[in-house]
Specification:
By secondary structure, the protein is α/β, with parallel strands linked by helices. The chain is built from 30 helices and twelve strands.
Length: 704
């Protein structure tokens, strides 16, 4: 007997959007070309049921319905042969090739439909089984996304249900009706999220609730969604593997069992990547993170936390998985992803010319629940991809912020919010805020991290001291120098005692304290510390090391504050040359070095040189970091000052007025830099005879 479509499940809920698509493409006849209509999606999303419902609703649309199990070429041949023989009239000894000839010669004016169900095997070649005949409509259901390429009408990618459809399916399976109590509705909504609105999982949950419900007398005692949710949270894997005892559509597999069928067909490298992806947040996993990590050889780009012997082993495993012929090959990664997409285990989307991957929430949960991966290094591999893919070395702090924000979220899920590794990454996120001039955000996050470090690690732990130093820097940037000094003095004393005088962290504390003394006008103390720091770094790290160059830059600014312009210029020019050569012309630290040299030139009355370099710096700052970045505000104020000294008041005002507004917004009205700029702008308005503007802007000056 020829195979027929499976019965429509009693739990089937019609999905409006997919239904409109399938009817609009299949019901209206077309004489111009043959219709091939693939429906793809992950296992259990309702592909087969949608086709069964369509055939039930349109029983007279087709003269012949040929329904084929397409799980293998042998099953296709067997079902085609069975169909042909069932025609009778001399076809009793037909083979599958005869069936193909019949399909190719279907009478004109008769509409036939050929359904290939469960064509999931990515190695299966369907082409030999596709008869060319405009009278024969072909429908394909598959987990293999690539079969969408066969479409001549529309490729229906069947995803999760809408929230309303999902709730209806779960209620129907549980034999429950609206309205529900507030608690039950809240639990139902949470279940929809946990199950990702996947049809098979929703029916599984509803059926479980129905089976455990009871009737005493005429009173129904339902097993509630709240009870199921509680059980789901503690026994998710066991529940998702359970099969329904009996089903009209013979689909008795649990949600996880359905996914297991795909997993067994995956290559090992695809399984490995899937487990790594499952440890990200399931939405918008950036493929660029893998490429960037690979260009850094999967090594840390900054020190997050101490590494043990497993660090090198983790890097080696990532290279084994993602390298080809001992080097990074993006095509190799794309091939692995394509294998996962062929089973609809991942989906992909493009944003701003970048490729992002997505996992269904239930696929993520299924991957994480697998007992066999507990001893595997996937967690370490995932974190290593993230830590190796940052933008710090390039000074691209906006991109770093996005990555660190994702890291904090992912580490929080994997390690826990209070874990030292999560806190280390949170500190790095605060650093990205700091370098973008978002000091209040940096301060808020650092206070949280510092509090947790004090409780978990203790006052003298290096990470606790490091965060205190970072907090001091955020205070200094806000002009809160007394608070900054107190923290920095403590950090320097602790590091000298615990780490020793020549430890890089001790030297960093001394460098920070030197700059705070400079901001407070304590120039002798500042110079003494600055010279010591530069000497130490030259001796320990060498002249060209970035930290040595940074120390030279700091000392140059101290000389500026002392009016020692020749010494400031000599050091500043050398710093600019080194940074241009080592970091590149447009690295933020290079631009800062140029800005410092502008100040030195201007203070010596070398206006042409100061103006030329100052204009270049301002253009770079605005283009790279934006007009509202503190460094761009400073660059605008400096160039305005150069115009002002040359009595070019209109040009100076045009630059400084928007810089003052940006400073009030970003730094705050009472910040010392903002107050200095307001004073200068008041002077410029008075020089231009704009007394009303001068009076308005001067009202913003801080009155002591």
């Amino acid at each position: 007997m020829a195979k027929t479509a499976l019965p429509v499940s009693p739990y089937f809920v019609l999905r409006e959007k997919p239904w409109n698509i399938i009817t609009s493409h299949l019901v209206v006849p077309s004489s111009s070309r043959q219709k091939i209509f693939p429906i793809t999606g992950m296992g259990g999303c309702g592909k087969t049921q949608l086709v069964s419902y369509f055939l039930r609703e349109y029983p007279n649309l087709y003269v012949q319905t040929i329904y084929v199990d397409a799980s293998s070429s042998s099953s296709i041949k067997a079902h085609l042969q069975t169909w042909a023989r069932a025609l009778g009239g001399g076809h009793e000894r037909d083979v599958w090739e005869d069936a193909m000839r019949i399909l190719k010669t279907a009478p004109r004016g008769e509409r036939w439909i050929l359904v290939f169900d469960n064509a999931d095997n990515p190695r299966l070649n369907l082409t030999p089984f596709l008869p060319i005949n405009t009278e024969v409509t072909i429908v394909i259901t598959s987990r293999n996304h690539a079969l969408g390429n066969l479409s001549t009408t529309h490729h229906l990618e069947l995803g999760e249900m809408t929230a309303d459809e999902a709730l209806a399916a779960m209620l129907q399976a549980a034999r429950r009706q609206l309205p529900l109590s507030d608690e039950e509705m809240g639990s139902a909504q949470e279940l929809l999220m946990e199950l990702g609105c996947l049809a098979v999982a929703l029916v599984q949950a509803g059926t479980y609730c129905r089976q455990l419900s009871s009737t005493i007398g005429d009173i129904l005692r339902p097993y509630t969604f709240t009870q199921y949710l509680r059980l789901f949270k503690s026994h998710r894997a066991d529940l998702m593997k359970k099969a329904e005892p009996s089903s009209l559509d013979n689909y008795q597999r649990g949600a996880y069992t359905t996914l297991d069928l795909s997993y067994t067909a995956l290559a090992q490298e695809s399984r490995d990547l899937l487990h790594i992806l499952s440890l990200f947040h399931y939405s918008d996993i950036p493929l660029a993170a893998f490429a960037r990590a690979a260009t850094h050889a999967f090594k840390d780009q900054e020190e997050y936390h101490p590494r043990d012997n497993s660090y090198e082993a983790t890097i080696s495993k990532l290279k084994d998985l993602l390298y080809r012929d001992m080097e990074w090959n993006e095509i190799h990664l794309q091939e692995i992803i394509q294998n996962l997409r062929s089973f609809s285990l991942v989906t992909a989307s493009t944003m701003n010319d970048s490729l992002f991957l997505q996992l269904h929430p239930l696929i993520q949960a299924w991957c994480r629940d697998m007992k066999l991966i507990a001893a595997q290094p996937y967690r370490a591999m995932t974190m290593q991809v993230l830590t190796a893919s940052n933008y710090v070395s390039e000074g691209r702090w906006a991109e770093s912020e996005k990555l660190y924000a994702k890291l904090v979220k992912d580490f929080g899920q994997i390690r826990g919010e209070g874990h030292p590794e999560t806190m280390a990454v949170a500190s790095s996120l605060a650093t990205s805020y700091y370098h973008q001039g978002r000091w209040i955000e940096a301060e808020k996050l650092l206070l949280k991290v510092a509090g947790q470090h004090m409780i978990i690690l203790g006052m003298d732990h290096p990470e606790t001291i490091k965060v205190a130093s970072m907090l001091a820097a955020s205070y200094s940037a806000q002009g809160r120098w007394a608070e900054s000094e107190r923290l920095e003095v403590d950090a320097l004393a602790q590091r000298k005692r615990i780490l020793g005088i020549d430890h890089p962290d001790t030297i960093l504390s001394a460098a920070n304290l030197a700059m705070t003394y400079r901001s407070q006008g304590r120039l002798t103390e500042s110079e003494k510390l600055g010279v010591e720091v530069l000497e130490q770094r030259r001796r320990i790290l060498g002249i060209e090391h970035p930290e040595t160059v940074f120390a030279a830059s700091n000392l140059s600014t101290i000389y500026q504050s002392q009016g020692r312009w020749a010494e400031a210029e000599k050091l500043g020019a050398k710093v600019l040359e080194q940074r241009r050569r080592i970091l590149g012309v447009e690295h933020p630290d290079t631009i800062k070095a140029a800005l410092n040299l502008v100040v030195t030139y201007a203070s010596q009355g070398r206006w042409a040189e100061a103006e030329k370099l100052g204009a270049e710096v301002l253009e770079q700052q605005r283009r790279i970091q934006g007009s509202d970045h503190p460094d761009a505000i400073l660059a605008a104020a400096n160039l305005s000052g150069i115009y002002q000294i040359q009595n070019r008041y209109e040009e100076a005002t045009a630059l400084l007025a928007p810089a003052v507004q940006a400073g009030i917004k970003v730094l705050g009205q009472d910040h010392p830099n903002t107050q200095a700029d307001i004073t200068n702008l008041t002077f410029l308005y008075e020089k231009l005879g704009q007394s009303r503007n001068a009076q308005e802007i001067s009202s913003l000056l801080y009155r002591r």
